[in-house]
Design goal:
The protein is α/β, with parallel strands linked by helices. The chain has 9 helices and 10 strands. Strands 1-2-3-4-5-6-7-8-9-10 form a 10-stranded parallel sheet, with no helix packed on it. Helix 1 packs parallel to helix 2 and helix 7 packs parallel to helix 8. The model has no long low-confidence stretch (mean pLDDT about 95). It comes from Marmota monax (Woodchuck).
Amino acid sequence: MTPHSVCSLQSNSISDAGVAMLMEALGVNQTLLSLNLRENSISPEGAQALAHALCINSTLKHLDLTANLLHDRGAQAIAVAVGKNHTLKSLHLQWNFIQASAARALGQALLLNSSLTSLDLQENAIGDEGASAVASALKANTALTALYLQVASIGAPGAQALGEALAVNRTLEILDLRGNAIGVAGAKALASSLKINSSLRRLNLQENSLGMDGAICIASALSGNHGLQHINLQGNQVGDSGARMISEAIKTKAPSCTVKM
């Protein structure tokens, strides 16, 4: 990227009025590829201005809105714009007080958008309902390759929905679920899909209350999976005997897969 194609305004206390002025320029700009607006206290009103610009702009590829104050209303506005935009490739929305209703809107956007390859929703309490909405979109979406859902209040039902999506999705390569609570039931659901899925390369299940049984379910499922290259099972209380069993399962069933425990 050239200097004129990247703009970082991180931590600049930009008001909604400032965002509005910036977005007027973005609407007609034809060179900017990456825009970083992290930590600027952007509210739903500022998000509305940004969404309008996204509907017009045809060059921006990377947008970082981490740690703002979008809430559901602001994120919903962004989601509608993403559904109309055909150039954006990565969208960072972590730490924005987003819940299930905005996740549903983002799911709808994924059904319409064919350019977005990376979506980061970590540290937003989207819950099982929100995870299920995004998962439903993954059954039809063929563009997204990376989905980050760390610390998103996801339990077994959300993992079940994601598992069902992985059973049919052929493009997602990275799924990060660190810091949720999918438990043994969620692990079993994901394990079933891993026997079928061939596109996933990295799966992070760190700190998900899997226990030994859940972790072994995941490891044992790898005999039918030839694509996964890295799994993180740290912080799941598998114990020494569980670690030995998992290591043996990986060694015999998926020797090319690296496991963190």
